[in-house]
Amino acid sequence: MSTVDSILQIKNLKTHFPVKSGVFNRVVGQVRAVDGIDLNVHRGEVLGLVGESGCGKTTLGKSILQLVQPTSGSVHYRSASDSLESSAESGVPVDFIDLCALTTRELMPYRQKLQIVFQDPHSSLNPAFTIFGSLEDPLRQCGISTRAERRKRVGDLLEAVNLRREYMDRYPTEFSGGQRQRIGIARALSVNPELIVCDEAVSALDVSIQAQVLQLLKDLRRERNLTYLFITHDLSVSEYICDRVAVMYLGKIVELGDAETLYRNPQHPYTRALLSAIPVADLKRKTRRIVLKGDVPSPVNPPSGCTFHPRCPEAVERCKTEAPSLRTNVQNRHPHSVACHLIDCSALQSESKLPRNN
Ligand code: SF4
Q1: What is the CA 231 to chain-centroid distance, rounded?
Q2: What pTM did the predictor assign?
Q3: CA nearest 115: which of 178, 181, 65?
Q4: Close Cβ partners of 18 (under 8 Å, ≥ 6 residues apart)
Q5: Phi/psi of residue 165, each to 5°?
Q6: Atom of ligand 1 nearest to the CA of 343
Q7: Which of 296, 342, 354 maximizes ligand 1 atoms within 8 Å of its Cβ, making it the mutation to test the pocket?
Q8: In Å, how far from its chain's centre is CA 179?
Q9: Would you say 199 and 231 are in contact if contact means Cβ atoms under 8 Å apart?
């Protein structure tokens, strides 16, 4: 994929949090929540970020949006607004802005373009404000100065998420969880974003409501040419909505590929274990459950070599000392990347080299 198709280019991004101890509050270690991520997000796609709780998905999403300060690395963003046409006409190369290098004031215009929808619809709205009160503030900051205009925009936004205009004068407690999540999506849309980080956006909802909200996200993406970074621990949800999926383990990406290929033929032992835990009704697709040993190790003191080796059913001696890099088979029509010593990426086609469990 050429750089022209990218909305974000993330290079060697690390977000470490200091661990302090003792009377002098000395730094005695680092929580390596995000530990060297390289990732391109393509404009208009839904990129899933999956993995067990505590693998660093949410910290990566917040680091991209600069809601937490990355320790090192870069997040280059390119807006569509002053983009390809004008750049191509003027012959000026398309430039990406490194969000990590900007001051808080310089970040302000980019914050409008990069929004987030949080997991908990109950706590993401202020119960003291009506829905209009919650949604009008970002509109005012966008320069919509008259109250009448803001009321019209809030009404339009509510209709865009399949809610009635008159709901704007109600309080959050008067809505169900699904309705509140729709309002959260409306708030993210209010500033005309290009990319939305959906952080476990449907995890707190009932299954039937999940399906409605996922369909809404799909429709809005098509209508508004949005890009989603879709963070979830639920692999059946990511299979439904994502174009590509990145699997994270202890702050690193261990497998990345287009969703159909990755779900049909997972390569990394961790991905295969995660997928084996999805309940499937179709007996032909059913695989034997792979139960991983132990818990996710502490990111303060990750294991040597491949950090997955203490739990990996395929681990060999080399895995204990040598960390595998994320290698990509660019020859494939849909590039597929895997970080495992046992996978020969140049030979990645349709069948895994690892023994099958079904
Ligand atoms: Fe398992 Fe070794 Fe591959 Fe890591 S490198 S996933 S420990 S086989």
Answers
A1: 4
A2: 0.87
A3: 65
A4: 27, 29, 30, 31
A5: -60, -40
A6: 3
A7: 342
A8: 22
A9: yes
